[in-house]
């Protein structure tokens, strides 16, 4: 075979392989994807937070959309993004429509409608991150163009008061706006958002900040403080001791989502030696569903006032565990 043909077939094969997920890195990987898929409400296209619930958020659906896109399930991802796109159209068709101010944080996955008027910049930034990722992997910059544009404009507007937004929220906004930085207004917003993050970040008190500092701003300072968050609890599900991390330095209990985020961050920044057992400890927390065909992680490992939180799987930490297997940074889409 000629060298030209070899190169041609190699390039063709490579472009085809890019459309499919890599081989699983954990026996729980496919079961976790199946769990996220099981949360889809067929009527609305949105994912529920946990099995048997209707409650969900913009953030949770953005995480699910990224999981689906990474696995090549564009149909499921677009069913989520379509719901927000359709809601935007609905708002624009109202009599005397108000200026777009983002999407309400909380939604009902069963009805596909928001349940409050609480607008969180961080959640909306995650929706833009999912839209950015969709544009990248689908190579389609026209689909959801208006939705992206409205979110960019609103986040730029909100950046002007970012002193009132928590540091992790400003980091989410910064990451979501980076791909749109050719716009001078966005470039100015990015400068302001970075300054706000640096002014309010508290690595010694909030573990979220270590994750955002590393994955958004490539600042690893937070790893100097991770030992302050290490906790050991006994999981009420099976009485197994678990070593993981709290979300805040003043909390005595483990937050599984933040621990999964930290595990991902350590993997992507080669800081695994500072949290050497974290991945294996989180692996102990898989909760199986549907005769073992699905598996997810809980949010807490003791109930700490939240009904069934230690014995039901939930989407947030499950998604971050998958991102860790895939070495996927949701803040950059790579």
Brief rundown of the structure:
The protein has 334 residues and is mainly alpha-helical. It contains 12 helices and 7 strands.
Summarize the structure in words:
With 334 residues, the chain is mostly helical. It has one domain: Glycosyltransferase. Helices cover 48% and strands 7% of the residues. It contains twelve helices and seven strands. A three-stranded antiparallel β-sheet has the order 1-2-3. Strands 4-5 form a two-stranded antiparallel sheet. Strand 6 and strand 7 form a beta hairpin. Residues 1-21 have low confidence and may be disordered.
Overall strand count: 7
Q: What portion of residues belong to β-strands?
A: 5-15%
Mean pLDDT: 92
User: Which regions are unreliable across 5 or more consecutive residues at pLDDT < 50?
Assistant: 1-21
> CATH topology, which one?
Glycosyltransferase
Q: Largest sheet, described in full?
A: 3 strands, antiparallel
Total count of domains: 1
Structural class category:
mainly alpha
Q: Kindly, what is the distance between the CA atoms of the first and last residues, rounded to a whole number of angstroms?
A: 35 Å
Strand and helix map with partners:
Blueprint: H1 3-17, H2 29-38, E1 55-57, H3 58-70, H4 74-92, E2 106-108, E3 113-114, H5 121-138, H6 145-159, H7 167-177, H8 184-200, H9 207-217, E4 230-234, E5 241-245, H10 256-268, H11 278-283, E6 287-289, E7 294-296, H12 315-326
Antiparallel strand pairs: 1-2, 2-3, 4-5, 6-7
């Amino acid at each position: 075979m000629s060298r030209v043909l070899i190169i041609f077939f190699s390039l063709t094969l490579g472009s085809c392989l890019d459309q499919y997920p890599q081989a699983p890195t954990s026996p729980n990987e496919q079961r976790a994807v199946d769990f996220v898929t099981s949360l889809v409400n067929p009527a609305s296209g949105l994912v529920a937070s946990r099995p048997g619930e209707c409650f969900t958020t913009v953030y949770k659906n953005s995480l699910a959309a990224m999981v689906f896109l990474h696995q090549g399930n564009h149909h499921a991802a677009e069913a989520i993004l379509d719901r927000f796109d359709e809601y935007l159209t609905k708002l624009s068709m109202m009599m005397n429509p108000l200026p777009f101010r983002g999407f309400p944080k909380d939604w009902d996955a069963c009805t596909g409608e928001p349940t409050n008027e609480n607008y969180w910049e961080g959640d909306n930034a995650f929706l833009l991150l999912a839209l950015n990722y969709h544009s990248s992997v689908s190579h389609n910059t026209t689909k959801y163009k208006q939705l992206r544009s409205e979110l960019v404009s609103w986040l730029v507007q909100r950046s002007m008061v970012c002193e009132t937004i928590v540091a992790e929220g400003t980091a989410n906004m910064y990451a979501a706006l980076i791909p749109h930085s050719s716009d001078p207004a966005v470039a100015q917003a990015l400068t302001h958002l970075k300054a706000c993050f640096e002014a309010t970040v508290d690595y010694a008190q909030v573990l979220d900040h270590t994750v955002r500092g590393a994955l958004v701003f490539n600042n690893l300072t937070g790893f100097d403080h991770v030992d302050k968050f290490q906790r050991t609890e006994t999981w009420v599900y099976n009485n197994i001791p678990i070593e993981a991390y709290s979300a805040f330095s003043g909390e005595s209990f483990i937050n599984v989502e933040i621990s999964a985020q930290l595990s991902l961050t350590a993997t992507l920044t080669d800081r695994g030696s500072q949290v050497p057992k974290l991945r294996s400890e989180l692996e102990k927390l898989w909760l199986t569903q549907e005769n073992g065909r699905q598996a997810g992680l809980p949010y807490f490992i003791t109930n700490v006032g939240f009904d069934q939180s230690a014995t039901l799987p939930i989407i947030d930490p499950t998604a971050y565990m998958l991102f860790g297997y895939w070495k996927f940074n949701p803040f950059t889409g790579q």
